[in-house]
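Hey, resending since the last one bounced:
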Amino acid sequence: MRQTPHNKTLDLKSAAKGHPASGLTLAELLVVLTLIAMISGLAVGMIRRGDGGLGSEADAKLLRSAIRLARNTARRGGTGAQVVVDPKERQIEIAEVIPGGVWHFEDDTGARGARILIEGDLVENGRLGGALKVSGGVTELGEFAWQQPTNGFRFRVWIAPTQPGSVVSREGNFSLNLDDEGALRADLFLGLQGENVSIETRKGVIPFGAWSLCELSYDRSSFEIRVNGVRYARKLRRDPVKRDDTGALRIGGNGFQGLVDEARYDLAGPSNYQALGGNTLIDSKERIILHFDGRGRLDARFHRAAVVVVLRPDDDDPESPVETVRVELSGAIR
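The structure tokens again:
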């Protein structure tokens, strides 16, 4: 039949001679599908890495903002602040340090102008001027029922003991005692039931007749005794301190005798919490704690080097980006 431009038919003979109809062979189709699968897998991997990177970057920004807030709070109040990065809970905790009181023992005036109940004598031969001479009695530094040490506390005092006994105590919360061999023992009461947790230094850390700076602290992470800036005893705990509305802060007792000077009591205020993203891991087995002093620097009593927090996306890809937050001793955040 004669073909015209408007009436075409398929020429089977031509097709049989090597001129096939338009379309894809099975081999070509398999190649195309393979390429699509490879491109799709590559794209999914890039998306996963991108999401993880964005999550880590966002959490790093959140962590930097939280640390800056704590540093600025420490500088504004002049007393310090604390930041806790919890890898298990994936959260950031910020608490301001609240000044409980400072006692110089120049006279019987204590914190906020309140008088203290002295059982002893005020003498001139203190370490920094006047001092309290304790002769077995108990000096009450004042009640702090409106400021509970629930979230933590720090008590520092200079002592030059001549006889062992109770250095300091807050009824129902904590105590620090000196034995006749120069060792310090501290007791802390935690939780609703007041579980007793004790720590003790080695013998001879406190010389009799000489000045030593004693420090007892608890920050909802560790319970510590320090002497002249050196840590001699520590126990890890996270429970809140038992609440006791009637507790009074006391110097002396149980036969303690000697000179006492420059006592300072600080408490951790209420905590603020911020949660990290669900796809970020903090690369640490323990909680990371940053202590800022009143100038917004890392407190030299707790930090000897910069603190680095590493954040990783929560996936198994070794090429996923890692974010780091670094806090210098000066308080600078990078």
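DSSP finds two helices and 19 strands in the chain.

Sorry for the duplicate.
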